[in-house]
Amino acid sequence: MATKKAETISMVDTFNQFTQDKQIDRTTLVSVLEESFRNVIAKIYGTDANFDVIVNPDKGDFEIYRNRVVVEDGEV
């Protein structure tokens, strides 16, 4: 039985290839990705004001944090 080797696509390689193919600098690409994530967040939650979006093309990952204020029960 023949087995197929799964092809792994690295986000770092994808970032590099995209910047070369489309001739877009990395800073612009990161800004576009961050803004895209913010648009999706705003559609889902109504606003993106309490969110931090961090795209790291060197590591090939991104992080999205939602900032909240913690209060005691009954103080809302």
What structural class do helix, strand and pairing data support? alpha+beta
Biggest β-sheet description: 2 strands, antiparallel
Number of separate domains = 1
Rg, Cα atoms, Å = 18 Å
Note the total helix count: 2
Lateral strand order in the biggest sheet: 1-2
Question: Are there runs of 5+ residues with pLDDT below 50, and where?
Answer: none
According to DSSP, the number of beta strands is 2
Keywords:
76 residues; alpha+beta; two-stranded antiparallel ribbon; 2 helices; 2 strands
General description of the model:
With 76 residues, the chain is α+β, with helices and mostly antiparallel strands. Strand 1 (51-56) and strand 2 form a beta hairpin. It is built from 2 helices and 2 strands, in the order ααββ. The model has no long low-confidence stretch (mean pLDDT 86). Helix content is 42%, strand content 16%. The chain has one domain (11-66). It has helices at 11-22, 26-45, and strands at residues 51-56, 61-66. A two-stranded antiparallel ribbon has the order 1-2.
